[in-house]
Amino acid sequence: MAGTANTFRVSSRILGPGIIWAGLAIPSASARLTIASVDSDGLYTPDATENPSAYALGATKDGSVASVKSTAQDYFVDEILAPVDRKLQVVEMSIKASLIGIADDKVATLLTRGFGTYATSSGYKQTTIGYTSDTFTSMAIIAPLREDSTKVYVFHMYKAIAEGGLEVQFNHKEMAAAPTVFKGYAITTRALTDQIGNAWWQI
Amino acid sequence: MYNVTVESLQATYGAKAAEKFNEISALTGAGVTATGFGAVEGGIAVTKDTPNFAEAEKIIKGGTAVVNSNKKEGN
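The joint structure predicted for all components is written out below.
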């Protein structure tokens, strides 16, 4: 009998850091975010022509976490101990990070979508808290790959918004940051297989 | 490649810019709308790989989309 080749796939991993971007353009069906060449920090960024409204959310306190969670309903029959079938109930995409640039107008606005109204004039920038309509944005994390750092991994949510409000830590021992979760929503008129976002890498 | 927003279409289409944006969105499969429930800031990225690129580009450049141009009349 012949053996089967093993691989540990250690080079098929992501190199940090990943930079979070918002204000991205929505890719058309079966397309992906266009990545530009490397910037002065050695990081790959969204193409500026296709994404003129894009902006980076800046540094995070301890990196970011991208997740896709699915919840399925298992079905049982009395005669069999294990579930015999399942049906998908929920799929959720999110990006979690503690942002440090909370006194930045773009970040402050993004973190208070749905309840904050930004304004500025001579001597101040402010967010008044009340009710406003939700404004969704297209967001992605872009990070280089270990195997080839000129290639990137992209986790993209087409329609996202910060959830859970604004919580800022004020203390002298640690760096002030706002722990935030950005949640992805479906664009219902897109193809069923491609409504919430995509996770892809360059080859 | 193009970034299409309502603002970018306004110079060409004026008050009909939102309608044209929605037309491009539907053609390319982006699925967002100019305003209301389906709206997402940032616009639509349109490249040569985009579905119906030729039709979308025609609208972006100010022409009228030609859909099913090979279809013969009366068939």
